[in-house]
Fold this sequence. Notes:
- By secondary structure, the protein is an alpha+beta fold.
- The chain has helices at residues 10-20, 27-34, 39-48, and strands at 25-26, 54-61, 70-77, 81-82, 85-86.
- The termini are close together.
Amino acid sequence: MIHRADEFTGQARVVIAHLNRGWPLTDAQARKKYGIARLADVVYKLRRRRVQIMTELIQVPARLGRGGGTATVAKYTRPGVRRGGAH
């Protein structure tokens, strides 16, 4: 089921609108683009409202000063939604 952004308020509305466009979202992207400090909490609340959101763990370069290497972060997407809108 595709949930419309206008079914939600605040941060949930922003996140669902982003994901409904078929764009993935990570915590770092949510902080930078939307000022959302706790994306996992927003995703948790959306899931409690029966919104289907997939989580993929991805590797990203670790922050400087941590000896290089990689860090694992969550990337959220909507199943069945392609870039550019719902299908």
